[in-house]
């Protein structure tokens, strides 16, 4: 049976530890509250001395692949000897994951210290605006301040949502990366791929280099139009750079990547799926563009190989347990589910795979389930802890429509759902002990983060 996690927020002297105190203060601002516009963040950063102007940045948006690509860029820049700041969202297990320096998340103590340093200025801005500063705005300001204080040579920053109106879009970065665009957050960003692309194109500014993954035609047209409007240089996957060759390898894949100025052979990437190969190509091109490769010598091939070989992307086709195999993936929209299915089919030979699915209510849940249905023998539906989580009974009703009632099991808690999925996966006596039996936990980054906490005591079993 799985444990339920045992983090104790009280330190030995009876006081609440600093990180728990900060998390409570941030949660009071409403983690899911969205307040479009830049007036509050400009005001706050101005009081802090505009720390985001202390270093150049690489700015990333897109529908899927942002975090993996951000991590790849960060790792490659670090391998080249640059001190990096990395900002991602959301986090899997701890809020400290969002802000990293030299590839390492801030310690609990440093995270709390940065919050305490900017809190008086946040209070001032709260008094000037209604509504006050949001959760995401505070954490973004913390990241920019921590990077300036380090100091870093370059910041690699993932948007929170969209692009044009996102809090991070105060950077005006010299390199903007746009990963594949599809339908998601349609209530906020637009009901068509073209409308969503127009919002995401807002991170591309005058004189920047736009590095774009392969896009649907309607998205590509919008992005190219934006580049022309602002005089940005464009580098397109499949044209100026891309994946020349890829083959499945033990623990990942072996790639040949064409960069902006050089071809790199025998690049091992310890991540699964063609989508991750595309992310790697975008990451390579972004770093080349940032460093001006083409105007000077190409990147050293051994550094490129070493960097990609050390890349990690937690929660993305990540194996957490063997016997049976338990895999987690943060796919939270149909496009993400499609590449998850393709990656699983390519890299694993499951004879029986049972799913555990918990989703957020504002997603295209029917589309996610439809993508997963051909892959899964059965599905256990449950609910994660997010206030935006789809109620388990509603999810069960949708799942029954897609899978049929006989292939759907309901569990009220994630730990119970994983235990039940393991039992169902091993239910066929002919497959007991078979390496082709597995469990997939997916549907949301929140779900994956909670699954990782639950499964951590069983890692290595």
Structure description:
Helix content is 39%, strand content 17%. With 461 residues, it is of the alpha/beta class. The protein folds into two domains: 18-309, UDP-N-acetylmuramoyl-L-alanine:D-glutamate ligase (3-Layer(aba) Sandwich), CATH 3.40.1190; 318-458, Protein-Tyrosine Phosphatase, Chain A. The strands form three sheets. The protein has an eight-stranded mixed β-sheet with strand order 4-3-2-5-1-6-7-8, sandwiched between helices. Strands 12-13-17-14-15-16 form a six-stranded mixed β-sheet. A hairpin with a 4-residue loop joins β10 (252-258) and β11. The model is unreliable at 3-10 (pLDDT under 50).
Arithmetic mean of pLDDT: 92
General form: globular
Q: What name does CATH use for the topology of the largest domain?
A: UDP-N-acetylmuramoyl-L-alanine:D-glutamate ligase
Structural class, please?
A: alpha/beta
Query: Ends: how far apart?
Result: 13 Å
Helix/strand layout:
Blueprint: H1 18-27, H2 39-47, E1 57-61, H3 66-79, E2 84-87, E3 99-101, E4 104-105, H4 108-128, H5 135-149, E5 154-158, E6 175-178, H6 186-189, H7 193-200, E7 209-212, H8 217-230, E8 233-236, E9 242-249, E10 252-258, E11 263-269, H9 274-291, H10 301-309, E12 318-321, E13 325-328, H11 334-347, E14 352-357, H12 365-372, E15 378-381, H13 392-403, E16 408-410, H14 414-425, E17 437-442, H15 445-455
Parallel strand pairs: 1-5, 1-6, 2-5, 6-7, 7-8, 13-17, 14-15, 14-17, 15-16
Antiparallel strand pairs: 2-3, 3-4, 9-10, 10-11, 12-13
Helix pairs in contact: 1-4, 2-4, 3-9, 3-10, 4-5, 7-8, 11-12, 12-13
